[in-house]
Design brief:
Helices cover about 35% and strands about 30% of the residues. It starts with a helix and ends in a 15-residue tail after the last strand. The protein is built from six helices and ten strands, in the order H-H-H-H-H-E-E-E-E-E-E-E-E-H-E-E.
């Protein structure tokens, strides 16, 4: 019986570590190739988000595979496109476009809140068209509003370049400050990613207002006919 048992063990030897490693390597290669097929499919569908995620996963988990080598030829470009697309979507989502009745007429607005300050202290940049009042542009804050005597000059930067603007306070007492020369301002804003204003408020003294304006879409700011 002992001889028979030995004979059976000789016929069915236990797998060596080398054999086990080969099996594991094949399993990993099969999984890498499966994910590679999905990556190729996402590229064909121009789905940069999923392609970037799949490609990063392949490179991270199967760095020495043929699949990783193929992915690395296109992944940097795909990931860069996705980052740019994500940033465009983020900036676009900051803007709000509305059309609504307003004091005997209709107004169309395009507005966004300041990135800094944010929360309860945020200031809103508003582009407005009104059927009676025409077009205007203003900052709308909180508290008791802004400091400005007559026609004042606000120091501002468009993408880091100095761009001072003339401004004035409304006579109706809202916590707002209107910007003169709205048309040139908007034309310059359309080419700008970030605008920074330096203002003085009645409640908090000097303040820096930062607006990420790069997602503005003029086609969404509805034009209105004059009443």
């Amino acid at each position: 019986m002992a001889l028979a048992a030995c004979s059976q063990q000789d016929q069915n030897p236990a797998p060596s570590q080398a054999d086990a490693a080969k099996v594991q390597a094949q399993v990993e290669a099969d999984e890498a190739n499966r994910q590679l097929q999905n990556y190729r499919q996402m590229l064909q569908m121009k789905n940069d988000e999923m392609a970037a995620l799949l490609g990063q996963d392949i490179v991270q988990h199967f760095p020495n595979s043929d699949a990783a080598k193929e992915v690395q030829q296109t992944l940097p470009e795909v990931a860069q496109r996705w980052r740019e697309t994500s940033e465009k979507r983020r900036l676009a989502a900051l803007w709000t476009y509305q059309v609504a009745p307003m004091e005997g007429g209709t107004q169309s607005t395009a507005s966004l809140f300041s990135t800094r300050p944010s929360g309860d202290r945020a200031v809103r940049l508003v582009l407005r068209r009104h059927t009676q009042w025409g077009q205007s542009l203003f900052l709308f804050g909180t508290g008791h509003g802004f400091v400005c005597k007559g026609n004042c000059m606000l120091q501002a930067q468009f993408d880091g370049k100095p761009h001072p603007v003339r401004a004035f306070l409304p006579t109706t007492g809202e916590p707002a400050i209107f910007i003169r020369d709205d048309k040139p301002f908007i034309e310059a804003m359309e080419k700008t990613k970030r605008i920074v204003f330096h203002v003085e408020t009645r409640d908090g003294g000097k303040q820096e207002l930062v607006f990420d304006t790069g997602g503005y879409d003029p086609s969404k700011w509805t034009a209105l006919g004059k009443k």
